[in-house]
Design a protein that fits this description.
Blueprint: H1 6-18, H2 21-28, H3 32-46, E1 51-54, E2 57-60, H4 62-89, E3 94-100, H5 103-116, E4 120-126, H6 129-137, E5 143-147, E6 155-163, E7 165-170, E8 180-181, E9 192-194, H7 199-210, E10 219-221, H8 224-232, E11 238-241, E12 251-256, E13 263-270, H9 277-315
């Protein structure tokens, strides 16, 4: 028994639904002769007549009616599939999994993304630097957010902002009122270090090695949240990238004299995932937010420059 092809069934269903070969051709985005050829091939292969041609229209025969009752669900399924795919393309629906090293940079972007695309279901996981990179490379997530994400041929990354590495000093500590502190001044303090693959600790270790200091930390803690809470409880002084958390309770962020450089926070993904619509939209949002921050910084600098010029003019 020869089976009708999917193209033949599709053409048949469209003619049956629209009552016209020309309207069916328009709906399927093909020529009318192509639709006619599909119907004729099915009729000849099975020695049946599916339609009575009436003027410019087409009426189902008895066998055509019977066939349509059994196949029209295929047309409905195709239409539903088209709606789903269109919705995904326009970001009305979809999924996005994000791996992040810190909640601060991730959540501000997630909040903005959620406002723009409420139909996208978001899943967010947290880990250290290596865990986030591994999750992206092994496709366990769609994109990552990290300080100094890897620079590689298979990675696309978008810079979000630059941030400083600061000391976390408990409120009430003698150093809490300082604008800046030298690492040498911290050597007699109880220090809290990160364990595992922490980018914060790697950068701190690099600078400590450069200046020849070998501190003995009081505690090694696994997570940034544990470091912050220990500082808030007055246990010791820790270290953090200043944008990693929006918390400001019972802790003061103090600049470190030996660390003048800034560290970029990146959103990144595999280049093969760059064009996925939910990922593309997230990266575009990241780029737009960076541009907005840059414009705001330029306006602030312009205002400061203007005030300095005014003061100079008054002085002269």
């Amino acid at each position: 028994m020869k089976r009708p092809t999917a193209s033949q069934i599709r053409a048949f269903n469209e003619v049956a639904a629209t009552g016209s070969f020309s309207r069916a051709a328009k709906a399927l985005a093909v020529s009318q002769p192509a639709v006619t050829a599909q119907i004729r091939a099915m009729e000849e292969a099975h020695d049946v007549r599916l339609f009575d041609r009436v003027g410019t229209g087409a009426n189902l025969t008895a066998i055509g009616e019977r066939l349509y009752r059994h196949t029209r669900q295929m047309r409905d399924t195709e239409k539903e599939a088209a709606v789903i795919l269109h919705s995904a393309r326009t970001l009305m629906i979809g999924e996005l999994t994000i791996a992040a090293g810190a909640p601060g940079p991730a959540m501000s972007l997630v909040a903005a993304y959620r406002d723009l695309y409420p139909g996208i279901r978001l899943e967010i996981i947290f880990g250290n630097w290596q865990q986030v990179v591994t999750a992206v490379r092994e496709r366990k997530c769609d994109l990552g957010i990290l300080t100094e994400a890897p620079h590689a041929e298979d990675i696309f990354r978008e810079t979000l902002f630059d941030q400083a590495l600061v000391a976390l000093v408990p409120e009430g500590h003698p150093l809490a009122g300082r604008q800046e502190v030298a690492l040498a001044d911290l050597m007699d303090e109880p220090l809290l270090f990160r364990s595992g693959q922490s980018q914060t600790q790697k950068q701190l270790n690099r600078v400590l090695h450069q200046v020849g200091l070998k501190p003995q930390p009081l505690l090694w803690l696994e997570s940034r949240e544990a470091i912050y809470e220990a500082c808030a409880q007055g246990i010791g002084i820790g270290f953090m990238f200043d944008a990693a958390s929006t918390r400001a309770d019972r802790v003061r962020r103090v600049k470190i004299a030996e660390i003048r450089e800034f560290f970029p926070e990146h959103a990144f993904c595999l280049k093969s995932k760059r064009t996925l619509r939910p990922v593309e939209a997230f990266m575009n949002l990241a780029s737009d937010q960076r541009s907005d921050r840059g414009a705001a910084r330029e306006r602030a600098q312009s205002r400061r420059s203007g005030r300095m010029d005014e003061r100079s003019a008054l002085t002269n």
